[in-house]
Amino acid sequence: MTDGRPGGRFERHPRLTGAGLLAGALVGLELVLRVAAPSPLRFAHEMRRVHRYSRTARVELRLSQSARLRMDRSDGQPLFDFQLSTGPEGFRIDEPAAVVVPTRGARFLHAIGDSYTMGWGLDAAASYPARLQRRLGPEPHVLNLGVDGFGAIGATSKSRALSERCPPDQAVYLFSPNDLDDDLRAAAVAGRGGLAHAAHEALDALRRTSYVAGVPFALRYKLQFQAGPAPSTVDTTAVGPRSLLLPEPAALPAPPGDHPTFAALREYRDFLAARGARLLVLVLSNQPESLLALRFCREQGIEAHLFDVPPALRLPDEGHFNAAGNEAVAGLVEQLLREGQGASGS
Known about the structure:
Helices cover 42% and strands 16% of the residues. By secondary structure, the chain is of the alpha/beta class. A hairpin with a 5-residue loop joins strand 4 and strand 5. The chain is globular. The relative contact order is 0.14.
């Protein structure tokens, strides 16, 4: 029974009141997180400023954006701290850098791939495409089309999309072992329906504006880049470019013919060949996935070289190339480009 008196607000409108309390709690949490701004959360928020959801490649860079990406070690020192800026065409540019305005007859080199091509962990000037540009001189214009999380689908699609404005005379694809998995994920994303794409795009927009929405991703990044105290010394001994090349095994495993990575690479080879452009593939490491890619290139008549970068030329506790490593890779690419196809293309 009831005494006839009206109940409280919560009793009269439980759902509306509950929703209001939840919204207030979220607003309060958002303010707290913005004030505290722990390193992983700032990193996740800044990542969204320069990245966006892609319906075909799963991830892509946004146009004309710039963010400072920093992740701290357990002792508060930076694991990495670098600027990531994009131009109006959506690829990485130096900070500051003039927009490339091609003239009639200009020559371009498309450096495509994932975070190793992008130069993850370092400012753009220390990436291998930027180092390669300094080695080659003013032409060809070396475009850094690397995007972290790209496989061959995203890498080749980005190059093809820019080919009308910046037609490649040469293209260098740096294959990394995780490209196979990245392409499987990209193919799965491309198969989503329109409503699923719209939902992911809405989440992407929310992550760009809300620290709360970035908490799960901040935790993931913190675990991904977890590292202890910075080492007291880092060996950056210079390594000759050709010493990066690895001996090829006598027998290579047969690649699956229907894998999206190899389908994309085959289409890209034909796309470049129709335009008289050269394709050079650098296959990173001798892991099983890399050996599959190397054999595929051999069977398809694509010039490919197996290589690796030693720990001394990588970012400590992180794995991407350091400035000396990118310089060595740029030197290797320069030599291979100048030598021509050679025996590897046979």
